[in-house]
Design brief:
six-stranded antiparallel sheet, 165 residues, 6 strands
């Protein structure tokens, strides 16, 4: 009993190699997309976290000022008692252009720097909500972006009332 092998059909070695090559090219493309998405997510998350920490730091700095303070300069570190705007109504938040006296700039380590060397822009706005209430808004935006989508930013809002005797 001999079976005729000439009529057997199946995949040749060349066909198998071509199929593996096509599969390999597809998997390599998928790996590149996965690597890019992991790096983008990590970078965006890191920058968003740092922006939130910087916003909280500035908010705490502004809250410690006296309700009627109109002269403290909180754009420098450490803050000085004169030469600034204190809690005077004014300022702007992202995406508006920074207002002088209501903005400072941070490098990647979180230290204050000049606008040309900054990784983050902090802007704040003080609004007199009533005679006994001020609304303080702090906006921090990363100046770095991977070219896809908006740069990470954080906005914090709080209200301040006069200190009780």
């Amino acid at each position: 009993m001999h079976t005729n092998l000439k009529n057997e059909s199946g995949m040749t070695m060349v066909e198998a190699m071509i199929a593996i090559l096509v599969l390999l090219v597809g998997l390599l493309g998928l790996a590149q997309v996965l690597a890019f998405s992991v790096i983008t997510s990590k970078t965006y998350g890191r920058d968003a976290g740092k922006a939130t920490a910087a916003a909280q730091e500035k908010m705490e700095e502004l809250i410690t000022l006296q309700f009627n303070d109109t002269t403290s300069n909180v754009t420098v570190s450490p803050a000085t008692a004169t030469g600034g705007t204190g809690l005077t109504a004014g300022g702007s938040i992202y995406p508006s252009a920074p207002t002088a006296g209501y903005a400072d700039y941070l490098n990647v380590a979180g230290s204050r720097t000049t606008s040309g060397n900054s990784a983050y822009t902090r802007q704040w706005q003080v609004t007199n909500t009533s005679a006994n209430l001020k609304t303080i808004t702090v906006s921090v935006t990363s100046t770095r972006s991977l070219g896809t989508g908006a740069a990470p930013s954080t906005v914090l809002i709080t209200q301040k009332a006069p200190e009780r005797p």
